[in-house]
Amino acid sequence: MTFSIIARDPETGDLGGAVQSRFLGVGSLVLHGRAGVGMVATQAWANVAYGPRGLALLEVGATARQALEVLVGADDQPGQRQAAIVDAAGRVAAHTGGDCPDWAGHHTGDGFSCQGNILVSGATVEAMAAAMRERSGLEFAERLVAALQAGQAAGGDARGQQSAALLVVRKGGGYGGRSDRHVDLRVDDHPAPIAELGRLLALHRRYFRRPSDDELVELTGPLAAEVAGLLARRGAGPVDPGDAAVWAALEGWAGMENLEERLVRRGWIDPTTLAVLREG
Asked: Which domain holds residue 259?
């Protein structure tokens, strides 16, 4: 009783997936990803071992199709499994076992796969695929959520809604640049989990997105001096306050308290240095 999408973003190489189910905490089971390797979705009577095993196969050179064939071939209940894989090259493979409860099926496209079981109809996966193709103006994570929204609007899970999740992996894309968890959001129990997932994604953009070059602003006055002081206390040596402009997008922050915490929360200062900054 789950529908999901996994994909590779052709513009960035990011890998991601999104899922909704009438099941508690679906995000802990279905989506598995590793930057530069691939993304796996495992559902229906889910064999969660498909996640780590599939990624291990991809990491040693298997294609999405080869990895899925190995997983299904070694399974003692393949008819009850539904799974899909996209590899780092954007190759896609999907499997819907013949014993998965109706409606069950999948739709693969260029760099993505949509799949579901116990759905109102096949219109759900078709709508998800159409949304993935058509919403080119959105960023990758937003496109994945939009695909879920389209699937739900087309009927979705026959038993209703309960939980949803979104996972996007990117090398060095996690908090502080120390993991590949670029976006990792879960709604474990909610009457409208896809809408709630969209709300959380909007918050994630506000709190964790790094600024682009066109958002950089020149810092002047006390704020520039304060940021320069932070950099100096990190051990960077004397810093010209004018160079602090690279920390960016801080308009209106002059005079605000807890500057260190704000910089850490936005990922512009390594969180492990915060205690050092305070001691300094």
From this structure: 213-279
